[in-house]
């Protein structure tokens, strides 16, 4: 019984050390200007590191020139989940969105945000802690996707076969 206890303690110590190293290094997702180019651009990470911005943002239009941002969500198992995703500035607000292009494939970050809307955004080297709002208005969702298709015109052919009943989510980023 003593040996089993030592093995369990050893495993727990190793796990804590691994988590500590990952926390220090961050283990961010890869930054890719076009996340649709390579599967490695879609690999998730853990903690995002950078300079925390605590002041309200009154104008998100600077994101029009930024192809992707990083998003860190809170998971049910207490480790952060971070991904590189596209963003769009529309009608004075910043939006994050997803379209479920392949049946059965889900985006963990969507499920995390729906469960707990508190997120951390990384734009450049700046971190923004925000609580996202889920957009339910069909007209607003459609307008956001039109803005997204315009911003990402190079990848727009991917979206030509999207049917109206395709599952999609849109989240608005608040200014403060």
Descriptive report:
The longest helix has 24 residues, at about 1-25. The chain has helices spanning about 1-25, 110-115, 140-150, and strands at about 50-55, 70-75, 80-85, 85-90, 95-100, 120-125, 125-130, 135, 170-175. The N and C termini lie far apart (about 55 Å). The chain has one domain (about 30-175): Electron Transport, Fmn-binding Protein, Chain A (Pnp Oxidase, Chain A), CATH 2.30.110. The protein is of the alpha+beta class and about 180 residues long. Strand 2 and strand 3 form a beta hairpin.
Largest sheet: 5 strands, mixed
Number of helices: 3
Q: How many domain modules? A: 1
**Briefly, what CATH class?**
Mainly Beta
Q: Taking all residues together, what is the mean pLDDT? A: 83
Counting helices, strands and paired strands, the structural category is alpha+beta
Query: What strand order characterises the main sheet?
Result: 1-7-6-2-3
**Rounded Rg:** 18 Å
CATH superfamily descriptor: Electron Transport, Fmn-binding Protein, Chain A
Count the E strands.
Answer: 9
The gross shape turns out to be: globular
